[in-house]
Amino acid sequence: MSEVRVATVLRTVEDTRAFGRQLAGRLRAGDLVVLSGPLGAGKTALAQGIGEGLGVTGRVTSPTFVIARVHRGPLPLVHVDAYRLRDGRLDLDDLELDEELDRAVVVVEWGEGVVEALSDSHLEVVLERHDDDSRTATVTGVGPRWS
Ligand SMILES: Nc1ncnc2c1ncn2[C@@H]1O[C@H](COP(=O)(O)OP(=O)(O)OP(=O)(O)O)[C@@H](O)[C@H]1O
Ligand SMILES: [Mg+2]
Predict the structure, then answer these.
(1) Torsion on CA atoms 41, 113, 82, 139, rounded to nearest 10
(2) How many CB atoms are closer than 10 A to CB 121?
(3) Pairing relation of β-strands 122-129 and 3-10?
(4) To test ligand 1's pocket by mutation, which of 8, 16, 86 has the most ligand atoms within 8 angstroms of CB?
């Protein structure tokens, strides 16, 4: 397994969105991005930046009640909240994400340990929240796509 790791400090929510826009420039169809970190860490803010960078339509919001939302664009974004997959109430197969992955970028909040099996490669982004409200993002590319 090949791994590439980069860490960056995000002082404000706008930094987090800008980081997402930057990340989007490196993404292509078939990419799976797994966002992890505690409540309020900035996973959705990062997903918003990715959406902006990809130029998709519709505001990227917290998908908590819909689980997955597809945003159309030159490169579509599928934004997933996997929180309810973690307790086994919903099954990953129900979302049919493997079909979406062929043509879109799939970004999953709370997906760690659940969605990696969808692809032989994924980009893992771990957000940590500090007392001064800054965040640290650690990005790890896992698998042949990121070697
Ligand atoms: N440096 C920062 N980066 C990201 N968000 C920040 C930062 N500083 C403050 N915030 C605030 O923290 C909150 C992050 O919320 P967001 O919904 O993105 O988190 P989340 O990880 O998706 O939470 P949830 O686990 O509920 O899905 C926002 O209100 C945002 O304004
Ligand atoms: Mg969120």
Answers:
(1) 40
(2) 17
(3) unpaired
(4) 16
Q: Which ligand is nearest to the CA of 39?
A: 1
* CB-defined site of ligand 1, < 6 Å: 10-13, 15-16, 37, 39-45, 62, 109, 133-135
**Number of domains the chain is built from:** 1
- The tens digit of pLDDT for each residue in 116-141 reads 989 999 999 999 999 999 999 999 99
The reported pTM is 0.94
* CATH number of the domain where residue 140 is located: 3.40.50.300
CA–CA separation, 87 vs 106, rounded Å?
21
Which one of 11-25, 51-65, 96-110 scores highest in mean pLDDT?
11-25
Domain region containing 11: 3-146
